[in-house]
Amino acid sequence: MRLVFFTLLLTNAVVFAYFHFAAAGGTKAVRVPIAPERIQLVREATDGDTTRGTTPGLCLRWSGLAEDRLKDAEGVLRELGLGERWKRPSADVFVLHIPPLKNKSDAEKKLAEVQALGVSDARVLEEAGKLRWAVWFGEYANEDDATVALNRLKEKGVRSARIVTLPKPGPDLLIEQAEPAQHAALKQRQGEFPGATLTTVDCAAP
C-alpha cells in the first residue's frame, strides 16, 4: 500500500514538473550554425543611386531642311547609327482638286475644260496613289485658305472641285534618344545643310 502511495506521488511530481517547465518556456531553441562566407548584404536603393540603368539620350529637332535635301539628311542619321530612332512627323494639308477620273485621257480632257475657264494653275496628278488622275489646284495649310480658293474656282465656273484632307510629311526630322557622341557628330554635319537648325526638345512621353 505504501509502495502504491509513493508511486502515485512520484507520478504526480513528474507531471507537475513537466507542465511547469513547458509553461515557463523551457523548450530549448535549436541553434543553427552561421556561415559568414554565405552572408550577402542587400543595399537599399536611393534616389541618388546611379549604378542602375543607363543615361537617357537626347531628343532633337532638325528643322529648316530644304525639301530636296531631306533624303540626304535621313542618310546622315543612318550613318550615325541612329537606326529607327528618328521620324518625320506628318501634318494635315487641305488639297483642292477635282476627284480622280478613270484614266489619263479623261483627266487631261477635264484639265482642258478647266483651263478654258481661265484656270491656269491646275495639273493632272499622275503619281500613284489615291489621287491619281485627279485635277490638282493646290494644297493649303488650313481649311479657311482652301475654302477661299474653292470659292474662286466656283466663280469661274468650276463646279466639281472638292477639298480633301490628307497627311503630308513635314519638313522637320525628330530624333529620339541620341547619345552625346551622336549629337556632337550631327552638329559637325550641320554645315552640309545651310539654313537648317538643330535644337534640343522634350522627349515624347512613352
In short:
The protein is α+β, with helices and mostly antiparallel strands and 206 residues long. It contains 5 helices and 8 strands.
Biggest sheet details: 4 strands, antiparallel
Envelope shape = elongated
Give the helix level as a range of percent: 25-40%
Helix and strand element order: HEHEEHEEHEEHE
Terminal Cα span: 93 Å
Supply the key terms.
206 residues; single chain; four-stranded antiparallel beta sheet; Alpha-Beta Plaits; elongated; 5 helices; 33% helix
Write up this protein:
The strands form 2 sheets. Strands 2-7-1-8 form a 4-stranded antiparallel beta sheet, covered by helices on one side. 12% of the residues are buried. The model is unreliable at 41-54 (pLDDT under 50). The protein is elongated. It has 206 residues and is α+β, with helices and mostly antiparallel strands. Among the domains are: 58-89 and 171-201, Alpha-Beta Plaits, CATH 3.30.70.2030; 93-166, Alpha-Beta Plaits, CATH 3.30.70. The protein has helices at residues 2-23, 70-79, 104-116, 143-155, 180-188, and strands spanning 58-63, 86-87, 90-98, 123-124, 135-140, 162-169, 173-178, 197-201. It is built from 5 helices and 8 strands.
